[in-house]
Amino acid sequence: MSRLTVYAVVAAGLVYMIPTLVWGAGSEGGHGAHALTFLFMALILLAAKASSLIERFGQPSVLGELLVGVVLGNLALFGITFFEPIKTDEIIGFLAELGVVILLFQIGLESNIKEMSKVGLPAIMVAIAGVVVPFGLGVYVAGPLLMPEADMNTLLFIGAALTATSVGITARVFKDLGKLQTRESQIVLGAAVIDDVMGLIILAVVSAIVTVGSITGSAVAFIIFKAILFLGSAILIGQILAPTISLYFSKIHTGIGMKFTLAFAVGLLFAYAAAEIGLAPIIGAFAGGLILDAVVFRRFKRPDYVEELAEMEADAPAPIKGKLADIVHRYEHRHVEDLIEPVAQVFVPIFFVVTGMAVDLTTFADTTILATALGITAVAFFGKIVAGLFAGKGVNKWIVGFGMVPRGEVGLIFATIGAGLGVITGGVFSVIIIMVILTTLLTPPILTHLLRKQTS
Amino acid sequence: MSRLTVYAVVAAGLVYMIPTLVWGAGSEGGHGAHALTFLFMALILLAAKASSLIERFGQPSVLGELLVGVVLGNLALFGITFFEPIKTDEIIGFLAELGVVILLFQIGLESNIKEMSKVGLPAIMVAIAGVVVPFGLGVYVAGPLLMPEADMNTLLFIGAALTATSVGITARVFKDLGKLQTRESQIVLGAAVIDDVMGLIILAVVSAIVTVGSITGSAVAFIIFKAILFLGSAILIGQILAPTISLYFSKIHTGIGMKFTLAFAVGLLFAYAAAEIGLAPIIGAFAGGLILDAVVFRRFKRPDYVEELAEMEADAPAPIKGKLADIVHRYEHRHVEDLIEPVAQVFVPIFFVVTGMAVDLTTFADTTILATALGITAVAFFGKIVAGLFAGKGVNKWIVGFGMVPRGEVGLIFATIGAGLGVITGGVFSVIIIMVILTTLLTPPILTHLLRKQTS
Known about the structure:
Distance between the termini of chain A: 61 Å
Oligomer: homodimer
Largest interface: A-B, 104 and 103 residues
Number of helices of chain A: 20
Order of helices and strands of chain A: HHHHHHHHHHHHHHHHHHHH
Helix content of chain A: over 70%
Number of strands of chain A: 0
């Protein structure tokens, strides 16, 4: 074919394909039941990656992904409704949840129980203060002041929504800036886990008060017992069972696929188990990552290049030998983390873009609601910053405090349940949504600023 | 805590958790809309990995995954209905399709256009004969003889399923036996790729006949023209656009996440585009993989360990220098393939297990169906062995012929699409599944025998 023929074919192809691709001539071969989901996935991923331009301005890429989501989710205001189906697409919704589960599993893998237990006490203190202060302020101070017409049931749910911590956003910021191993990061992660357990208790209590009118002390005690028992026994069972399961599967095959699949399945199983007990799946995934460490996989193959390097190391001369041994040591231990990374690259951005898309900019239009929301948002910030003061000595309390601020999907879940019970209606719902949006969107730049200042 | 206390807590946890996990106390916190899907994903992955025990018997692991699917899908016969919801779960269905799209994208990445064109005339001849002979025998001879009650639409789909060649299974067999570089292997791989494309044209044609009722010669010509035009122009457009898009995105960020996401998005976009034009998403994904080669990503970072090794290589003494340069060269070029591998590990097995689950064992009880399946399987072998006769001089024609026999996932896709169109029902579906399983199961030992005989 001559060059001209080639271009003619390309041009003909374009002329034929463009209308088909834009308007969708649609799936004559019985294929493509999920083709549109493939397109949405690709566009979300490309938009998310393009948004990492925001790193030029010193911001973490998670903020770019959230903002890209806000833009895509509000294009309908300009008549562009192409992306609207994403908001209600069940499969995209699942992929987003899978994304945040993978993120917390990944962070669990990079953490370990010993390090976490070192920050045990400050984490507990921060978590308790981070629940008590916002709840108290919401129910007894800011709520009655800003919304005098709200009854006690409504105030209870506003208070509950204020206690939430969405650890996904903060964890991403720490990860983007390479600060996951700092003491501040460990405290925030630990506090977020405890916070989720307490949030579950609060939710059960306020739901009971709203529906039954009251709750007994023993019922509260049972909920607390159940949640703690789950977390404790899941981690203990995991630590006992994981090496055993690993042993049996390594007898079947010691390949890299087996090693990685085992790890990933543990993350999914813990996410499921947490959800079954009423906790967030991400908390389970984090616990699953936490119990897995290199020793669990010691019977499995190392990556091909590590094997090659180990072989070379055997007869290398002195200085090279040391360097090779070092590379072998570092990369064989990083292996499961390296394998989960590409999977995270594909799914984690979907969560943040979809979260951004849930922001409805028209809620900001009503100035009365906006004013109330700004007041509640101030309380939301203040309550968690106060909690940060309990982080103990030797850490930057502001980083811990702001790290606890984002309410994210957890705050939304509380609002949604309140709406389902009929105590969170129209305007109040918008107030909570705006609070969630602002705490979620404003935290990454603030946290980035604080972390950079600390380093310099 | 004493050891005893720990075990007591674990025991209490187990006693409490087991009924909860089995019967589902369920999601009090409003979480876990997708928890059950996480559980199913984990169980499918673990079952798939456990099934790789089948490799001990010289069988490819894909067969283990299919058989595990057959088992899970038929446990209801023994009163265990736990896995039944997987069959109709829309999200699991999507994940399975994503899995096969990723598989074909991966195979596309590992192929390249130059190598394919080198295979030349024998591969084209084998591919054409491998499509014409089984299709002709299926539609006009064995089909009408063995299934006199089947109408033309059904026969067309049986014929189409007989034309399939599974690239993955074929390549895997040669790879396991260390014979990938033989002339026989090259011909089989090239022919299998061409066969896939022809099979998909056949699929488009038979699908049109089934859905529209009839098809004119000009419509067939148009489908062929459209398919070739799509593939040709997609590949050309991709080859022109991919480096440009890659250039712009590399200006935003040169990290590994960007590199991998770009590659993955290309696979998804091609899958979407193919579906929109009426082709299978997998052929689009394959084409997407085909156009991406190392040069597209030359502006992006190499893996960390490759950077380290390249640095070491600079001042290494002679023999070490050469070895390091070799490792650097091999692993930097394999990078996108290495990154897609863990993603494939997570999703590809879902496709095969879910496909196996579609097998209804109760149809095996029907000796008529079983006899028919054995007849169709004989035709499946015979048609491809005849195709091997066109492999030209200087090669073992039997190896080429048997190398083309496995129908694998492509045959299953044809059957599934036929089922979706309502022309492949109960018994006929089982006939095709049995044929696929037998061609996949019997080929590796035969091929092993032939290859060992050739070497000795």
